[in-house]
Amino acid sequence: MSGTFDGQAPPVEVRDLTVAYGEAPPILEKINFRIRAGEIFGILGGSGSGKSSVLRNVIGLVRPRAGRVFIFGQDLWADDGGHLNDCRRCFGVMYQAGALFGSMNLLENVSMPMREFTDMSAEAIETAARLKLSLVGLSGYEYYMPARISGGMQKRAAIARALALDPGLIFLDEPSAGLDPITSAGLDQLIKTLAKNLGLAFGVVTHELGSVMNIVDRAILLDKEIKGIVAEGDPRELARRSEPPYVAAFFNRQSLEKAKGEGPAEGGSKRRPGRIE
Ligand SMILES: Nc1ncnc2c1ncn2[C@@H]1O[C@H](COP(=O)(O)OP(=O)(O)O)[C@@H](O)[C@H]1O
Ligand SMILES: [Mg+2]
Question: How far is residue 39 from each of residues 13, 26, 215, 217, 239, measured CA to CA in Å?
């Protein structure tokens, strides 16, 4: 099964998306971005800048206040979300907490989406699930329960499950959260290899600068003060910029005051950035 509806359409296109919960004022207004085939795209920003909220709109969990989301050319929220089910099968998601089913072994976890969404035979499902586990370096761990493997292995298994339906696109929310630096670097390498070898596009939500510089091809930086995208491009190039100050501060792990060339906290800036980790 192919994860794409139309070879020409980009994996993700977001047009004039306004992100808001209920009646509350918008968190982000009219943002636009595209994730291209085969690229690792970063959605960056300090805590509370709206990274996870954008993701929820893009993967069909929360309806946007306004704007459109196209997944491989399919308008996700058209017809009151009527395309949601078609679209959901062409991307995989690894949520912030990893979220494997604790009562199932790894093989069963990876098999789940195929059992639920395809009419593949039990045998074909098992073969495919073993293959996905081998792609993430977990051959030999098929019958392990999630609690018996390390945090890094759990993340790999969750990626294997996200690969179950052969999507052309995978979303990861804070993939390295809770991992030590070495495990985190291994996970980065895996993501890079999957993008290269399988031609997968990745949408990665993160505030881990090291990981961004290692694997992200292109990124947007969200800013909660302007409720929008404050910078977009190759993160290594963005890091060389000194303007605007928030961008320099984010990529150089500085306080905003320092990036502006002002003194520390008492520098008189009324505009404080979100916490920059
Ligand atoms: N389910 C929700 N209901 C209402 N407000 C929310 C909800 N989830 C997040 N928010 C608010 O949206 C803003 C952005 O949060 P979030 O998208 O989690 O940011 P990030 O992932 O960048 O840390 C925050 O002010 C947060 O309090
Ligand atoms: Mg988040």
Answer: 13, 29, 10, 6, 19
Task: Name residues of the chain where pLDDT drops below 70.
Answer: 1-7, 80-82, 96-98, 254-277
Check residue 80 and report its DSSP letter: H
Q: Is 205 within 8 Å of 232 (Cβ atoms)?
A: no
Is there an atom of ligand 1 within 6 Å of 50 CB? yes
Atom of ligand 1 nearest to the CA of 19: 12
Q: In the numeric block, which tokens belong to residue 188? A: 């980065």
| 30/49 Cα distance (integer angstroms) | 15
pLDDT of the residue at 53: 96
Give the span between the Cα atoms of 74 and 90, in whole angstroms.
Answer: 10
Residue 34 burial class via C-beta count within 10 angstroms: exposed 0-12, middle 13-18, buried 19 and up: middle
Domain boundaries, the chain: 1-90+168-177+187-277, 100-166
Helix 122-135 and helix 151-162, axial crossing angle in degrees, nearest 10: 130
> What architecture is domain 1-90+168-177+187-277?
3-Layer(aba) Sandwich (3.40)
* pTM for this predicted structure: 0.88
| Residue to mutate (ligand 1; options 18, 27, 57, 277; most atoms within 8 A of CB) | 27
Contact 136/190 with Cβ under 8 angstroms?
Answer: yes
Provide the 3-class DSSP secondary structure of residue 256.
helix
8 Å CB contact between 55 and 206: no
Contacts of 261 (CB under 8 A, 6+ apart): none
Total H helices, total E strands in the chain: 11, 10
